[in-house]
């Protein structure tokens, strides 16, 4: 398993934080992860320190000109390789239709270029809606990681994600391997414990045992364009993402 889509159609649940810091945890252990920013807001690209002046240097040109992904990879200080996004990526939803070839384009490109092989996992940061971009991420992925912040609206959106994945499975002709990840978890709050119990009751073994705690270093590091490992390596946030990597590796997500 090497290509992971980090997806939830709700915003603010920790998709970008998770993509960035899980990739950073992989890089710290000597991997050469690649992060693909599929959100036109381009927060992942910006925090990783990769801002593309023109859409042509971004993942947009895969859709517009079928440019090879290898031409779009930028190196970042954290050791993550980044395929950046651009505001104009929002055009993809209206420009090219929603046919199978369009939603399968990233999958074809990643497999053709073997970007997710040889110890180089690919993590895809999705935008908060199910459109052409997120479908591309899901079609390309070996596994979908669904961050769920510990609140009721986020729990509801997890149920919607599950429904969407089930609806896609007949098209994909496979069961989508997925894990639900509790984020912004504050064990002192009753609501957080309630959401945790509801999530486990609903999704059982597909809920990560690792909880990502509410942590100020995770919230602050984007302001410095840093991963949590660069900004505060001994913080709870860094420990949690390290533990998440251990758990996902043990579950076979990042093995060849
Ligand atoms: P998404 O990509 O799903 O929209 P983000 O990763 O951008 O969500 O997170 C939304 C906000 O919450 C950001 O300001 C981020 O820094 C903050 N955040 C995310 N995870 C945590 C956490 N575990 N503790 C504290 N703040 C967090
Ligand atoms: Mg985001």
Mean pLDDT across the residues is 94
Task: Report the strand count.
Answer: 7
Unreliable runs, pLDDT <50, ≥5 residues? none
CATH class equals Alpha Beta
Helix proportion range = 40-55%
Total of domains: 1
Q: How much strand?
A: 5-15%
Summarize the structure.
The chain has helices at residues 15-28, 43-48, 60-65, 92-95, 100-103, 105-113, 132-140, 152-172, 190-203, 216-220, 228-231, 236-250; strands at 3-6, 34-37, 74-75, 81-83, 122-125, 143-149, 177-183.
Helix/strand layout:
Layout: E1 3-6, H1 15-28, E2 34-37, H2 43-48, H3 60-65, E3 74-75, E4 81-83, H4 92-95, H5 100-103, H6 105-113, E5 122-125, H7 132-140, E6 143-149, H8 152-172, E7 177-183, H9 190-203, H10 216-220, H11 228-231, H12 236-250
Parallel strand pairs: 1-5, 1-6, 2-4, 2-5, 6-7
Antiparallel strand pairs: 3-4
Helix pairs in contact: 1-12, 6-7
The structure holds adenosine-5'-diphosphate (ADP) and magnesium ion.
